[in-house]
Amino acid sequence: MSWIDDPAFSPDEPFGPQTLPYGVLDTPDGPVVAVRVGDHALPLRALAGEFSAELAPLVAAGSLDPLLAAGRPAWSALRARLRELVSQSAAPPGAELLALSAVTTRLPFTVGDYVDFYSSRHHAENVGRMFRPDAEPLLPNWTHLPVGYHGRSGTVVVSGTDVVRPHGQRRGEHGPVFGPSTRLDIEAEVGFVCGGPVAGRVSTSSAPDHVFGVVVLNDWSARDIQAWEYVPLGPFLGKSFATSISAWVTPLEAFAAARVEVPDPGHPRLDYLVEDQHWGLDLTMEVRWNGTTVSRPPFAGMAFSCAQQLAHMTVNGATVRPGDLFGSGTVSGPEKRQRGSFLELSWGGAEPVVLDDGSTRTFLEDGDTVVITATAPGPDGSVVGLSEVVGTVVGG
Length: 396
Ligand SMILES: O=C(O)/C=C/C(=O)CC(=O)CC(=O)O
Ligand SMILES: [Ca+2]
Ligand SMILES: [Mg+2]
Hints:
By secondary structure, the chain is of the alpha+beta class. The protein has two domains: 22-106, Fumarylacetoacetase, N-terminal domain (SH3 type barrels), CATH 2.30.30; 114-394, Fumarylacetoacetase-like, C-terminal domain (Fumarylacetoacetate hydrolase, domain 2, Alpha-Beta Complex). Helices cover 14% and strands 29% of the residues. The protein contains seven helices and 28 strands. The chain has helices spanning 56-59, 65-70, 72-87, 121-131, 223-229, 306-314, 342-345; strands spanning 22-27, 30-37, 40-43, 98-99, 104-106, 114-117, 148-150, 156-158, 163-164, 167-170, 177-180, 184-185, 188-194, 199-200, 211-218, 221-222, 243-245, 250-251, 259-260, 280-281, 284-289, 292-295, 319-320, 325-327, 353-354, 360-361, 369-377, 383-394. Strands 6, 7, 8, 13, 15, 17, 18 and 24 form an eight-stranded mixed beta sheet that branches. A hairpin with a 5-residue loop joins strand 27 and strand 28 (383-394). The radius of gyration is 21 Å and the shape is globular. Bound molecules: ligand LGMQ2O6W, calcium ion and magnesium ion. Magnesium ion binds next to loops. Its EC number is 3.7.1.2. InterPro entries: Fumarylacetoacetase, Fumarylacetoacetase-like_C, Fumarylacetoacetase_C_sf, Fumarylacetoacetase_N, Fumarylacetoacetase_N_sf. Mg(2+) binds at residues 219, 239, 243.
């Protein structure tokens, strides 16, 4: 029996000992690294004496930055030692469990470069049909490379941060008009947090040495600003005002039982995108709009894995550094209730979504709250959870 007295810290629950995500808490003594155990946070600084000389500074830090830089052998050693500490019957000296409802989490690492991909075929086809009704929804490059763009790392915020409705230009009947966005949307995505040595031309087989862990990511998007500004260079102010990520980063190692092959593109891939191991992930996401579950996007159908996306991102020689973040792209499945944006769920506003309280929505209203979570199959029939990403819209 573990000393951790929390029914949510069980292999049958998403945040049992099979998961152990890392986050950073704000405390009166400054920020501290913690691990999530069930519905509690376990601050690690007070336990630094339980770790080797190599690992102790990583857990005594005030952010995940030193851990991200430490590399895969340290990540594995730390996780293995944590597994021992949370499984033993007596609490290690100094251990203190804090209820998640009583802690304040902060952005757990310094976000370096931020890239967002576009790797869901269903999402790309749906958006293509709405934004470019007279063209083929998928351009010819789409199945050959993971299309992406560089986003704005300075506006990546931690779950719980309010999202201020952006202002901008949108198309009007007689030329552009300026004002608060009237088509504010979400994008349900999976985010990958990079770490390990600085490296360029990362191969698909070494990509896992540069991916520390996984978060849920909401790429808030102002569709009216986007639709007017994006030609021909792509997303800009319609997406750069806020991107939210989970407060807890789940180590990539926790997903060993969730790995699947990405779908066959129907043609050979260029060598640098061939995987010798499968890095697709069988995650199921859930999107809740003011408490109503409106969608369950399936991640397993994504056309490119995180390893392929990282290999592509660095194939020109560009380096990946600890703290870099990349988003999978909006996750949409083939069914309506599997779509990862409200643009798609409401089909451009034509088919309002009915919430449990009887109200209807097309795009976000001020005061609306969106929660996105995800789970994956874990070892021995367990479930691995990704911590929620939540945001509430406030008027701008
Ligand atoms: O097809 C377009 O013009 C735009 C598409 C997006 O809004 C997608 C984007 O941010 C990438 C993604 O999340 O899939
Ligand atoms: Ca996106
Ligand atoms: Mg964004």
